[in-house]
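#lab-general

N.A. 3:47 PM
ok so I finally got the sequence cleaned up, no stray characters, all 722 residues accounted for. can someone with queue access submit it? mine expired

B.Y. 3:52 PM
send it over

N.A. 3:53 PM
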Amino acid sequence: MSKRIIVLFVAIFVAFTSTVKADEGMWILSLIHKNYEDMKKQGFKLTANDVYNINKASLKDAICGLSNERFPMGFFCSAEIVSGQGLLLTNHHCGYESIQNHSSVEHDYLSDGFWAFSKDQELSNDDMCASFLVRIDDVSDRVLKDVTEELSYDKRQTLINKAIKEIVKESKKDNSYNVEVKDMFAGNQYFLFVFETFKDVRLVGAPPSSIGKFGGDTDNWMWPRHTGDFSMFRVYCAPDGKPAKYSKDNIPYQPKEFLPVSIKGVDKGDFAMVMGFPGQTERYMTSFGVKEKIDILNPAAIKIRTKKLDLMKKDMDASNKVRIQYASKYAQTANYWKYFIGESKGLRKLNIIEQKQELEKQFTDWLNASPDRQKLYGTVLSSIEKNYTENKEKSLGYQYVIEGLFQGGEIIAFPLQSMQLYRALSAEKPDAATIKTFTDNLREAGKNYFKDYNASTDKKIFAALLKIYYEDVPQVYQLEIFSTVQKKYKGDFARYAEDVFKKSIFADETRFSAFLDNPSKKALDNDMAFVVSQQALQQYFALGNSASDEFENATRLFEKGIMEMQAGKLFYPDANSTIRLTYGTVGDYKPADAVQYHFYTTLSGIMEKEDSTNDEFVVPAKLKELYNKKDFGQYASPNNDLRICFTTNNDITGGNSGSAVINGNGELIGIAFDGNWEAMSGNIAFENTLQKCINVDIRYVLFIIDKYAGAHNLINEMKLVN
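B.Y. 4:20 PM
back already:
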């Protein structure tokens, strides 16, 4: 699953017409006592307090969210602490950008892997953070204290935002915590999350991509899987134990709790829970929203990403330097390109629209049985349908702005980083100190940007995606520069792109540096890339507000009504990048007639998949040597093979990548990294018979660290239990 964008499943109507199954649900940690008896039946041997406790160490203290310093609460992946010295495990694809940033043609850590055999060999990462949960508070009563159903949407939101602002201010007083209030169930409940964020996170180890990305795009979202998808980092802090930016004086973080690592292995039916930061689900989406995804949003994203991937791949294949520069960008684009394809297929195959319509019929019958319910909920579904119907073109345009412009040519998004400088230069009395601060920041940003930038590649992407936007988006949402392209360049987007890249300060590091030496508002106003960027931003704001107040209120009431209709049922809110727990069991599944998938894969399967002519299936020589010798050490299974991955029925999605998979004793047994192709509709509807969470077996992780890399220092640091 993707690192940024920031996989789950069961038809939602099932969730509301029967008791929620143990494997479905992303549960809020502070409320896990409500699930405790069910967890015990599944094989959980600890207590609810062992999971979440604010007065003493608990499992929550060993789990962290990974983010960037600019957006510390924007968790792109999950991770877990596995030693008393801040050693952290996550996925290879979560650490991929860091590995790539440290790579060069001379030191190709992507191809060769990287291992620190002592702490002084660990590599710092300028923009990486690890956040640990301090506490969760249900603040619904306070946030909604003066809110009634009679209030207008605007008045309601004003009161809510005022209360949230006060709560956040109080919670941040006299501490350095990161604090956020998140709404649940579309604004029917509110929870406060308090985190301690560490800003010195160093790369410790990563296998070569031939292990960490084995199977590549071909195997992505698929089972059987043979990917050693892990990487290792270490969290550092100031000598007093407090978070601090990178310094040679910093020391390894001593966590309140870390996970013991089990080398016992797993069997079918074993309890397994996943703790992490799932990004976004839309389990309460109506049939109208599902239809929009199938007919409008996903086809647009697939078309745009297909073109972008084709252009990147050609240049990456032609140049080793470009291959390294664009490795992470390509992987991120390809990840959700395949996801959108699978999601559309799954939504159709599993008849999700029909399932949603069945729930909506139940809801309508229920509300029509009571005059009071008719008054409150009577127009909910018609309001939601109206919004989708009236905003089809806007939704298409917005998807193209995101996918084709801001995630298209990098030369469109990069100029946005100069907006603060532009405003400072535009002031009636420009302040020299302010301007210097912003130019210094941009100079640093430029170094990072141009390091992994190839203007020739970006020029092709820029031209191709602008052309697609021009051809597919309704006239009313076109960019003004398109008239220039038609008149001056005779509709030739390649010629237009040639001019942009020849002249723009954002296409060349030397020109960019010269501009920062003598910045001016006029230079930005006249810069062709800056102009495109501003026009794209205008469309973003114009199209991004398509949801009406009526729609937002109807969505909230729909979720409220569903919970009222099924009073007594245990509900879980949609994922929203807050820490959650999902529990279930290890197991296999039957994806199709006459097909039965076993719950684990082995090293023998890697050898079966080997293809030296395909870079996705190259097997390192040393791994083959260890296989041939059967030198698996204490990590072998009883039949003297080595297990690679296993499946559970845990409920995960993007953001859960890197999450700890924990057994009933609170020990680490694997790292979650993907979902399966047959249940790609899972963000919208959980499919209980098909949903699988794909995990790398922790014994394979240890084997690679120990036998393949020889990083015995890291093995000795962990607490292995059998």
